[in-house]
Structures are given as C-alpha cells and as structure tokens.
Design goal:
Elements lengths: L5 E5 L4 H12 L3 E6 L7 H10 L4 E4 L5 H10 L4 E4 L6 H6 L1 H21 L4 E7 L23 H19 L4 E7 L1 E3 L18 H10 L5 E4 L11 E2 L1 E3 H17 L6 E6 L5 E2 H12 L5 E4 L14 H7 L7 H18 L1
Parallel strand pairs: 1-2, 1-4, 2-3, 4-5, 5-6, 6-11, 7-10, 8-13
Antiparallel strand pairs: 9-12
Length: about 350
C-alpha cells in the first residue's frame, strides 16, 4: 500500500490518538480523525499542526453513531482504521460499569460493522495490558494465561478483542491486530502535546506533574504494602511516542505482508517494571523538583505488578521502544510547563 494511504483515527484528539496522528503525518500518511471530545478538546489539532505543519481532517462525532461513520466512509477513501475511542479510567469503570460496557463495546461493534460494509479491511485496535488481570508470571507474553480481571474497563477491552477475533474469522479479507499496551507516559519531545485529562488525573505521570506545578496539593500513592520490592505497584511505563510509532508499524505490517494472520495480539511495553516510588524518584532527579506525596489505601481495580515481554513486537513489527523513564519524565514536565505558559 502506498504511503499516501488515508487512516481513520478514532479518538484522535486524545492522548495516544494525537501522538499517533503526529507519527502518521510525519511518515507520509493522510489522516481523518473522529472524536466526540468527551475527554479531549479540538485544540489538540492545532498542536498537531504546530508540530507537523499539516492540518488534520477532523470530524466531531461518536463511534456509536452509525450515520456519522457512514458519512465518513462515503466522503473519504479510508484505507485503514486505528481505533482508540473508548472510556479508559479503571476507577471510573468500577464506579460506572454499565457506562463502560455500553460505550466501549457499542462503539467498536458499530465501527466494525460500518467499516467492513465499506470495504475497509485493515483494523488496529487499542487494547490494554489490563486484560491479563492479576497474575504472578513476569514478564507477560501474549501466550500468558489470563488471570482474574480486576475492572470493568479491563473486561471491555477483552470483549473487544473477542469481537475483533470473530469478526476477522467471518469477514473475508479483514485483517486485524489488537495492541495490548502497558502504561503510556510522557509527551512529545517539543513539549507541545501531551496528556491533558479533563478532570483529576487517573494516570500516575500527569498526577505527578500537576502536583509539581501546584495544580494539586499532593500525589496519592495507592498502597505501599504490595508484595513488590518497595511495596508500591509495579508498572511497565512506555513513552507515548514509542506507542504511536508502533501503531504505524502495525498498520504497515498488515498492509505490506501477504501472510499475516486475520487476527493477532501484540504487546507494547518496554519489558521493564518500574515502581511508583521509583517513578517519583525519576521525576525528581530529571527535573530537579521535590514532590509532595502521601500514602493512600489501595485502589480498587489495581493489580500489584505487570510488565511486558515485547519480543513479538520486535519480531513482527521490527519495533522496539527508544525512550525510557527519564525521557518520559522530562517530556511530561516540559508539557506541563507549556500548559502553564498558555494559561
């Protein structure tokens, strides 16, 4: 497939979606972005243009809305889909399970139906390491038996994978990949684009930067009594730009290889686990900021430890992460300072 291919990116104004659009544009692809701005803003596209020098064709709408999707496919020649649009907060999913099951499943099901009817046969799905549940085997490979799921969010991602799998079995020509990524962090190296939660952050790194800048009083460390090397949770933090590049590599893999499976699962992680306390220390070291934090009770839905075996991504996609925890913390702080300048 030619580099001039047009990719529909759902949730394109969001954190990972916007960085993936940047990577797509920089590698010669055209993009149509669909977002309902439930956890993002249209201003994201201005930042993308500032970084890439290219305008994004942006559509305001919802993946659950069949009419909106049909208008996109009738108005544009779409060669592939990267589907990010979903609710993604683990704690919120515990509080509002019906909302998560309805939105995350319906958006994927509607998109798959409309896109396959339009003849779009290449589909990348944004999945999550949360589908592995609470397991004691590390690192986690794609063949690792799944443990007990810890949140409705995790189950919506696993259900999404199953739907993708069966759609690929029953739709001739459909080729799909579910990318199970671990903990995205960091921002674009320019500092002009990053994670921008509309409400109180759920992810660790924006929580850290908002405390450091003075938006929040203290960072809550949810549990210091886990069976880990320092008592705090262990996660595989991976730079958002590395994740973005992996999505482009996955699309290229689907379109340029004749013998790919109709459905596959690939982990995206660094292969290294970092504790919450180690992440705090890395931020303080890289940015010369002392962080105010406090110990809080364990949070429902959290697993004790998880990090990836990423050998399959290296083998199939020729992809390896290039940026580590230091770059994540530096770029995230640069982004937080940029936001302060803009306010």
């Amino acid at each position: 497939m030619q580099q001039e291919a047009t990719i529909l990116v759902t949730g394109g104004a969001g954190y990972i979606g916007s960085h993936t659009i940047i990577s797509l544009l920089n590698q010669g692809y055209n993009v149509v972005s669909l977002d309902n701005y439930s956890n993002s803003t249209p201003e994201t596209y201005q930042r993308i243009e500032k970084i890439t020098g290219k305008k994004v064709t942006a559509v305001a709408g919802d993946c659950c809305d069949r009419e909106t999707l049909q208008q996109i496919f009738s108005g544009h020649t779409i060669n592939g889909i990267i589907h990010f649009a979903a609710f993604k907060s683990v704690p919120e999913s515990v509080e509002k399970p019906e909302l998560y099951y309805r939105n995350n499943f319906l958006s994927l099901a509607t998109l798959l139906d409309v896109s396959s009817n339009a003849g779009v046969m290449h589909f990348i799905f944004s999945s999550s390491c949360s589908v592995y549940g609470n397991i004691g085997i590390m690192p986690v490979s794609e063949e690792t038996p799944l443990g007990e799921l810890q949140s409705p969010y995790a189950e919506t991602k696993l259900i999404g994978e199953h739907l993708l799998h069966f759609s690929a079995l029953t739709t001739p020509g459909l080729k799909t990949i579910a990318l199970r990524y671990f903990n995205p962090a960091g921002a674009h190296p320019t500092g002009w684009n990053g994670e921008l939660p509309r409400n109180r952050p759920n992810n660790l790194v924006p929580f850290i930067t908002q405390v450091a800048i003075g938006k929040l009083e203290a960072l809550a460390v949810y549990g210091d009594d886990y069976d880990t090397r320092d008592g705090s949770c262990i996660r595989d933090y991976i730079h958002v730009c590395d994740i973005a590049d992996a999505h482009v590599a996955a699309f290229r893999y689907l379109t340029e290889n004749e013998n790919v499976k109709n459905y596959d699962i690939i982990n995206l992680g660094t292969g290294t686990g970092v504790t919450v306390f180690e992440a705090i220390s890395a931020f303080e070291k890289e940015n010369g900021q002392k962080l105010n934090y406090k110990i809080a009770p364990r949070r429902a839905g959290d697993v004790a430890a998880i990090y990836a075996d990423n050998t399959k991504a290296a083998r199939l996609l020729n992809w390896k992460p290039k940026l580590g925890i230091a770059e994540m913390m530096r770029s995230a702080w640069k982004w937080e300072l940029y936001l302060k300048e803009q306010s």
